[in-house]
Design a protein that fits this description.
Length: about 375
């Protein structure tokens, strides 16, 4: 119970971004939040696109608010997937805490409005990747969903079978799937393509990823050179070795039926790994699924949110792949939020107000009229917002 004996009210709006199918909480998690002492309010039809209808939330103990005003009135915490828009921020009551992906660099107007309206915002993408925060790591849960969806999308657009087949009509060779970037999404794409029966190869600039790739039964591409330098540390590759590495990756792209690219460098434009010359070397009917489309693309020919066909190669720049598996990506996201919320109330369910926990410190984007995240503050100062 909060000091004035009222429960902390959590509000879950219906997501408004185009193509967003996810919802910030699911009925199973509502039950747990109720047990933890929260009151949960869901905007009418908030979960419908992820196949969680209102009646399931009601059965789990939530109340349904017909519209935004009734939802937000008296709510202390708002849970969202996508960052709030400027118009949505205007509707929040001063002092409201908003938790979700904030993508501050591309939402500076909304961040400035939250600062001016004294809204508190926690950005889930800023949660540090420390062991204690693993259950709150929404970047990982959504990358898992995205990697799975990418492999399925690749298979769906490929004119070939993925597994080997021995039939009366002849033997079919298995398809080859290449994954560039073996982080969370890449590893999930590898596991999914393997389960579909393809031959899977993968490459990552981090050599340490090799062990994880091999443990999934895929081949890790690396040059047969000894890059061990002084004292056992890896040395930087020479210019010549870097060219050889590029050639090795291009040759792998050229022999693949499906290429899934996931290479990202946090806060920077995605590196180009597949040039237009390499696309021209690919087999007709090959497919590229570029998970980095929204940050510039790993393939030079990718167009965000579009499918283009060049030299007989289908190049897909999908937007919001986790939304394609909205039922489970919402479930995982809701559990991440449930775990994060445990930092905001004490054992008696009273709200925590000092935000001194290192996870809260790192993820606090805006609070009490100030932008707390230094890089975002600098961006706002640069644009004089
Ligand atoms: P990401 O989405 O930032 O990048 C995806 C992958 O692309 C990374 O593996 C990266 O090395 C790779 N990449 C970047 N440039 C490349 C290039 N030019 N060529 C090929 N590959 C390139 O990564 P992520 O999925 O967020 O994971 C990043 C790291 O964080 C991984 O080591 C992962 O295991 C680790 N991680 C740790 C935790 C934790 O400890 N709690 C949680 C999640 C991820």
């Amino acid at each position: 119970m909060s000091p004035d004996n009222k429960l902390v009210v959590l509000a879950v709006p219906k997501e408004t971004a185009a193509g967003e199918q996810r919802v910030a909480t699911v009925p199973e998690v509502v039950q747990k939040l109720k047990k933890a002492g929260f009151e949960v309010r869901i905007e009418h039809d908030a979960g419908i696109k992820a196949y969680y209808p209102d009646d399931l939330y009601v059965a789990a103990g939530a109340t349904i608010a017909p519209g935004r005003a009734g939802l937000l009135d008296g709510a202390r915490i708002v849970l969202c997937v996508q960052p709030p828009t400027v118009a949505e921020v205007e509707a929040f009551v001063e002092g409201t805490i908003v938790i979700g992906f904030m993508n501050a660099a591309t939402n500076l107007d909304a961040v400035a409005r939250m600062r001016d309206r004294k809204i508190t915002a926690f950005a889930l993408e800023l949660v540090p990747r420390i062991t204690r925060a693993q259950s709150m790591d929404a970047l990982s849960s959504q990358a898992t969903a995205g990697g799975y969806a990418a492999a399925i999308l690749g298979a769906d657009n490929c004119p070939k079978f993925l597994p080997m087949l021995t039939t009366a009509a002849g033997t079919i060779r298995p398809a080859t799937v290449l994954i560039l970037g073996a982080g969370v999404a890449g590893l999930m794409a590898i596991a999914t393509a393997k389960r579909l029966g393809a031959i899977v190869e993968a490459y990552d600039v981090r050599r340490a990823a090799g062990e994880q790739v091999r443990s999934l039964g895929a081949k890790f591409l690396e040059l047969e050179i000894n890059a061990e330098g002084q004292g056992g540390y890896a040395r930087e590759l020479t210019a010549e070795e870097k060219v050889q590495e590029q050639q090795m990756v291009s040759a792998a792209v050229a022999r693949a039926d499906i290429v899934i690219t996931t290479a990202a460098i946090p806060g920077r434009k995605a590196p180009v790994l597949v040039t237009k010359e390499t696309v021209a070397m690919m087999k007709p009917g090959a497919v590229i699924i570029d998970l980095a489309a929204e940050t510039g693309g790993n393939c030079e020919l990718t167009q965000a949110a579009k499918t283009v066909i060049e030299h007989g190669v289908t190049i897909i720049g999908p937007q919001n792949l986790p939304a394609r598996v909205a039922y489970h990506s919402s479930q995982m996201y809701a559990k991440n939020l449930q775990s994060f919320l445990s930092l905001l109330v004490d054992k008696e369910g009273k709200p925590v107000t000092d935000f001194t926990d290192e996870i809260l410190v790192a993820s606090l984007l805006v609070h009490a009229g100030e932008v707390r995240h230094a890089p975002t503050r600098e961006m706002l100062a640069g644009g004089k917002k």
